[in-house]
Amino acid sequence: MLVAERWQKILALVNERGSIRVTELSELCGVTEETIRRDLDKLESEGRLMRSHGGAVRVGESQPEIPFKERETVHADLKRSIAREAVKHIRENDRIILDASTTAWYMAQILPDEPLTVLTNSIQVAVELSSKEKIQVVSTGGRLLPQSLSYAGPLAERSLDTYHVDKAFLSCKGVHTARGISESSELQALVKAKMVAISDEVFLLADHSKFGQQSFAHVASWERIGYVITDSSTSADSLEALREKGVKVTRLS
């Protein structure tokens, strides 16, 4: 197979499936994984696909992210209440993850200045914690996503692979009682899935508007989510369905 033919086959597979892994492309194209990685780098540089950790995704598939400044004002009071409740679950010397959600940013604002390690992919969270001398802040680095002021992409995912934390606090775009949690952005979903994987306990911070929604990119199923903190407007039926799955639910009054 000529190089140009292989590139066309890779693009056809990515566009057909939405995403595909390097290992599978290697088998289907009959070349080494290193060759496939070089192919993907080349195709990404031409804007024909987008790299993800371990593979590639179709361009144009993910929905555009809402700018951070806009998200900051949506259900702000509810998110602040959820953040206050979430902080109660943090203990001195904990190693935690705060994602790039506005609720996590509100948590960063009110975290006490005590010995903690905070791993984050959020510029806003890192800046907020920079004045708290007893908190050690670790940033993932990676590709900067200007809308969310966060880091994502293969470098961010690989950096998360090197850590293990006690607790992860994250939000998402969609909360489905049967299918789990999801994100509109493939890049954000991959980073959050990695955050879930390296955490002993996972706290989902989601106001009522997220429930009943299913966004494009899957993040995690309910067996990986230990806790949900939400507001009083979330339907009782949805929360009972989560409790039946073994999720511990806090519904704020």
Written overview of the protein:
The protein has 253 residues and is α/β, with parallel strands linked by helices. Helices cover 38% and strands 24% of the residues. The protein has ten helices and 15 strands. It has helices spanning 3-17, 22-29, 33-45, 68-71, 76-87, 102-110, 123-129, 154-161, 186-197, 236-244; strands at residues 19-21, 50-52, 55-57, 95-98, 116-120, 135-139, 143-145, 150-152, 165-170, 174-176, 180-183, 199-205, 217-220, 227-230, 248-251. The chain is globular and about 65 Å long.
Task: Supply the key terms.
15 strands; globular; 253 residues; 38% helix; single chain
Number of strands: 15
Strand order of the largest sheet: 6-5-4-9-12-14-15
Q: What's the helix-strand series?
A: HEHHEEHHEHEHEEEHEEEHEEEHE
Q: What overall geometry do the principal axes of the alpha carbons give?
A: globular
| Beta-strand content estimate | 15-25%
Tally the helices: what do you get? 10
How far apart the termini lie comes to 63 Å
- Which oligomerization state do the chains in this entry correspond to? single chain
Helical fraction equals 25-40%
Mean pLDDT: 90
Supply the helix-strand structural class: alpha/beta
Compute the CA-based radius of gyration.
19 Å
Q: Which regions are unreliable across 5 or more consecutive residues at pLDDT < 50? A: none
Tell me about the biggest sheet?
7 strands, parallel
